[in-house]
Structures are given as C-alpha cells and as structure tokens.
Amino acid sequence: MTDDYLSRIGNLIRDARKHRGWTQTQLAEVLNTSQSAVNRIEKGHQNLTLEMLARIGEALDSEIVSLGGGPVHLRVAGGRQLSGAIDVKSSKNAGVALLCASLLNRGRTTLRKVARIEEVNRLLEVLNSIGVRTTWLNDAGDLEIVPPADLDLSSMDAEAARRTRSIIMFLGPLLHREDAFELPYAGGCDLGTRTVEPHLAALRPFGLEVKATGGQYHALVNRTITPGKPIVLTERGDTVTENAIMAAARYDGVTVIRNASPNYMVQDLCFYLDLLGVKIDGIGTTTLTVHGKADIDVDVDYAPSEDPIEAMSLLTAAIVTKSEITICRAPVEFLEIELALLEEMGLEYDRSPEYLAENGRTRLVDLTTRPSKLHAPIDKVHPMPFPGLNIDNLPFFAVIAATATGQTLIHDWVYENRAIYLTDLNKLGGRVKLLDPHRVMVEGPTHFSGAEVMCPPALRPAVVTLIAMLAAKGTSVLRSIYVINRGYEDLAARLNSLGAQIETFRDI
Fold first, then answer.
1. Can you give the three-state secondary structure of 353-366, one letter per residue?
2. Dmax of the chain from CA atoms?
3. Does 66 map to a domain?
4. Scanning 145, 160, 225, 275, which has its CA 20 to 30 A from the CA of 58?
5. What compartments host this protein (predicted)?
6. Do 250 and 117 reside in the same domain of the chain?
C-alpha cells in the first residue's frame, strides 16, 4: 500500500472510531493489539492486511473494506429539478422502539408499514435468535411478531446485537421477564458515559442493577425495589424515556416520569402501549403517568406514524434543487418549528388541511414546495427538545443555508464532532467553516459542483452530502453508503421516482 492510501485509510478508521465514541485503547482491546499500533494505523504508518481491515470494519460497524460483494456506492448526476409526489414512510425510530416493546407482550403484535432498514434488520436478527418469531406479511412492510413462552437469551446473536445501538432498549422490557440476564454491548458503552448512565439511573427504581464487564451488560433485578417517588430523568433523551416507559408498563402500579421526552417516537410507543391496556396520562408532555400491568397478553395491530426526519430530508432535497414536489403524509406536529424557520428564510410552499395518521393520533399534512430564493436566518440555527427544532433535522439546515444568501451559524450542541462532517460540503464547492466541534458557519449562496466523497459515518450528514450532490452540476460519487441504508429505505430509488438520476454500483 502506498503512503497516500494508508493515510486515507487511517483517516477513515479514525473518523469511524470517533463516531462510535471509542478511544484508541478501546479499539485496540477489541482487535487484541496495542494502543500504539492503533495510533500508527490511524496516522498511516502501519501496513495493513485485508484481514485486519475487515476486522477493523466489523469492530467499528463501518464498511471500510468488505470482502465479497464490497461496499455499495452511489453515482449521482446532479443539477436536475425534481417533480411529482411522494409519501413519507413510517418512522424509523418508532419502529425500532416498537420492536423492543413487543417483548412486553405475550400476545401477537402486528406492526404496519415498518421501515425495512438495516437497523430494523439487526433487531429482527436479535429477536429471532432468542426465540421470537417474526414474519414479513407482505411487500407493504407489515410485520408480525410472536414471542415464545420463554425467551432463550443464552442464544442471542451477539454480533447483530453489537451492530445496533438500540439493544440498550431491551433492558426495560427484559427486567420484568428475567431475574438475571446478559446483553452484549459495543465496547464504547462504558458505565458512567452520557449514552448509558441515564438509562441505568432511570431503571434502578425498578430494581435493575447493571455491571458492564467482558463485553456484556450483566443485569440483576431486585424485585423488592419499586418506584417510591417520581422518576426524574437526568436528560430528556428519547431512548432513555422509552426505556423508563417500558419498565413502567409491566410494573403493577403507577409510575410518574418527569423530564420525559415528548418526541414522536415516544408518542408512538405510548399509543402502542395504550392498545395493550397500559394507560398513560400526559402523552406529548414532559410528565408521564404510567398505569402499568403485571401481565400483558393481547393480540394487537398498530401502525406507527410517519417519520418527520424523512419528511425533512425530502423537503431539503426539494429546496436545494429548486423543485416543486408534494411531500404527502408529513407529520406536521414534529415539523412546525422547522417550517417556521424556513418561512423566515423565504421558503414558499403550500400545505393541505390536517388529517390523521393510521394510528388515529398523529396529525399529517401534504406539503407542496415552490422554487424559492432563500436568505440566511437572523439568528443561529440550533436544536431543542421537542417541541423545538429536532436534533436530527439540524444537519439539513447546513445544506439549505449553503443555498441561501448570507451567513448562517449552525450550532449542534448535543453531539460531539457531528458538525465536523458538515464540512464535507466543501468538497462539493460549499463554504462551510468549522468554528469548533459543535459549530459551523455556512456562507451562501453556493454553486455546488460534482465530486467524489467518502460517505460520512454519521447518518444525517451522509444524507446531507447526498442531497448536495443532487444540486451539484456534473457527476458525483458517494462511496460506502451503508450508514444511509441503516436509516432510510430505498432512498436513492425513491428520489429517482421524483426525477433524480442516482445509480447504485459496487467496485469491480
């Protein structure tokens, strides 16, 4: 390997490691090597075999190299206007939560129009390995889930479990089924870190104690401990709130959860539990009162609502390509701040009267965009917990701001280092200046031009890069798009249905 290739590969490994939240030492432990060896690899000072590259890619859940079929890439012929209408698919994050919540129910759960994405596939592999029968019923994505009388946790597919960050949400449902159990975890999830400790703090009032050693969560449940006072979440996280709700659902009593996330996936979980007979007061607010049931055995049919992040993705594609398209079934309740900000920036669009999603609760509209001349917003763009601007929608404002006149400050205060990936827009002709790990300054308007870019390891910045390529003159290549398939179903094909020209290919 040449020094140039080694440096490029080293940079990819470093970025994937940081995105996973690992230190060099943690990666070294998984690879059975030294921290100094990992340091040499990331600096491009270490020759690498294909076997080692494959091991690193598997450890980091990143297709740095793939033996066999090879990673999937996209070739984008940009500069084309889009047209037509497209339906928003069901929520990825709600689908993931509902798969975990199905473990609460001894009866049959049928979920309608589940997103067939890699994150869902990994969870299904885990569920199947412990004895849960899952069946895709049709091409529409309807999914039937039938649990066994007893789960076989000893047979859990550890590899699949480590490849989904959602495995942490098994803690809430399982603590009522097992007195002691183990779950695999990806090595970056150390106790006391931001991503794990809030979950454990929320579940301790139900008697759950967890130790993390040897690549496993070792969980013990003390049945004498029950919530004696309201549970106050230390952070208003979506998955933390969902774990607490699922624990409360099978607790035979009343649980009050304060500082709860009222976000879209949490609401879908609550609507599903309502069908199981678990009454929840305060849905859509930061205080939930859960009236639990010790045993749940119900055959239930539920349709999760549409995905506001996908709706924002499609809206962004329309804006940057200056296109008139209709985005049908957009969950407006979770897009109102985003739409208000876009109106301030000069976006012209029409919206239909509101109607209800198939769950009978979530408010939907159809949005029709019109080509608009945008200007930078007066204030910085930053996320807030619902009902504020969604943290997952923030990156889309970077590429939108790049097409607007003026300077826009994007402040991603939640995620360490995610803002860095927004500077990939510079490879396509953007003017994005990184101020610190949380803030970028975007200068517009931008005349994007085609380029070859390695797909960022973060989902939303990856889609932002793809959307910029739709607006870029000439042909672009986006390499190794597994991360996009993890969160979006057939995104390239669906954009093509609107007139985009995106080709999927692999290297020979």
1. CCEECCCCCCEEEE
2. 66
3. no
4. 145
5. Cytoplasm
6. yes
How far, in Å, CA of 339 to CA of 314, rounded? 13
Give the mean model confidence (pLDDT) for residues 153-179: 89
Is residue 278 domain-shared with residue 227, that is, in the same domain?
Answer: yes
Of 266, 285, 302, which marks where a domain is finished? Answer: 302
Cα–Cα distances (Å) from 380 to 324, 390, 394, 468, 472, in that order, read 27, 15, 11, 21, 25
The closest alpha carbon to 218, from 191, 246, 245, belongs to 191
The reply to whether 381 falls in a domain is yes
The 3-state DSSP class for residue 340 equals: helix
Count of beta carbons in the 10 Å neighbourhood of residue 386: 22
298 and 310 in a single domain? The answer is no
State the pLDDT confidence band at 191, using cuts at 50, 70 and 90. very low
**Segment 385-442, tens digit of pLDDT:** 898 999 999 999 999 999 999 999 999 988 877 888 899 999 999 999 999 999 999 9
Q: How many CB atoms lie within 10 A of CB 191?
A: 12
Indicate if 233 and 336 belong to the same structural domain: no
With the C-alpha atoms ordered 130, 135, 136, 141, is the resulting torsion angle positive or negative? negative
pLDDT digit string, tens, across residues 363-373: 999 999 999 99
Q: Would 67 be classed as within a structural domain?
A: no
pLDDT for 241: 97
Other residues' Cβ atoms within 10 Å of the Cβ of residue 103: 23
Which residues is 134 bridged to in the sheet?
Answer: 145
Q: Are residues 286 and 368 in the same domain?
A: no
Beta bridge partners of 449: 473
Distance CA 352, CA 365 (A): 5
Give residue 38's domain range. 2-60
Question: Model-level pTM?
Answer: 0.83
Residue with tokens 């007893």: 150
For residue 50, what is the domain's CATH number? 1.10.260.40
CATH number of the structural domain spanning residue 480:
3.65.10.10
Residue 242 forms part of a structural domain:
yes
Spatial CA neighbour of 444 closest among 403, 397, 398: 403
Our measurement of the distance from residue 146's CA atom to the centroid of its chain's CA atoms, rounded to an integer in Å, reads: 25
Q: Are residues 278 and 369 in the same domain?
A: no
Mean pLDDT for the stretch of residues 444-455:
94
Whether 404 and 426 share a structural domain? yes
Sheet holding 452-454, edge to edge: 452-454, 475-479, 72-77, 502-506
